[in-house]
Amino acid sequence: MIRNAPVSIIMTEHVITLNKRDSLEKAEYLFKHHKIRHIPVVDKSKVIGMLSFTDLLRLSFADVTNETDTAVDVMVYNLFTIEQVMKRNVVTVTTSNTIKEVAEILAIREFHALPVVDNNSLAGIVTTTDLIKYLLKQF
């Protein structure tokens, strides 16, 4: 295991993002299509929030309906905006934070994903899955 390895070696660089003006229907599509669970909400490249698939599940039947049966979800989604549902005041890390530091934040704060930000701009995302894959490679 590399001591003080930067999170940049395990983070995902090409991040799927949402804008606060996007629809929740689009968010559900992105979650399902890309098989992801967290999407940073950005204004240009600045992170202003985080939306999780769990946030959508609290509003809808997104996980129990098939991809063609969206009428109920669309009605519910039209009642809310991304800005209303997203988490604000997002904790972020930089590309120079170590994997250990990121693991501590994920464990202590009970987060599952953290946006990686450099110079106020989204550089990537790191998830608990990224961390577990990294640890498995060490064995």
Name the CATH homologous superfamily.
CBS-domain
Helix content: 25-40%
**Number of distinct beta strands:** 4
> Rounded to an integer, what's the Rg over CA atoms?
16 Å
Structural class: alpha+beta
> What is the molecular shape?
elongated
- What fraction strand? 15-25%
Q: What is the residue-mean pLDDT, rounded to a whole number? A: 90
The name of the CATH architecture is Roll
- The structural domain count equals 1
Strand order of the largest sheet: 1-2
CATH topology: CBS-domain
Largest sheet: 2 strands, antiparallel
Write up this protein:
The structure is a single chain. 36% of the residues lie in helices and 19% in strands. With 139 residues, the chain is α+β, with helices and mostly antiparallel strands. The chain has a single domain (7-137), classed as CBS-domain. Strands 1-2 form a two-stranded antiparallel sheet. A two-stranded antiparallel sheet has the order 3-4. The protein starts with 23 loop residues before the first helix and ends with a helix. The model has no long low-confidence stretch (mean pLDDT 90).
Key phrases:
CBS-domain; CBS_dom; two-stranded antiparallel ribbon; 139 residues; 4 strands; alpha+beta; CBS_dom_sf; CBS domain; Diverse_CBS-Domain; CBS domain-containing protein; single chain
Element layout with pairings:
Blueprint: H1 24-34, E1 38-43, E2 46-52, H2 53-59, H3 71-77, H4 82-85, H5 99-109, E3 113-118, E4 121-127, H6 128-137
Antiparallel strand pairs: 1-2, 3-4
Keywords: CBS domain
Protein name: CBS domain-containing protein
InterPro entries: CBS_dom (IPR000644), CBS_dom_sf (IPR046342), Diverse_CBS-Domain (IPR051257)
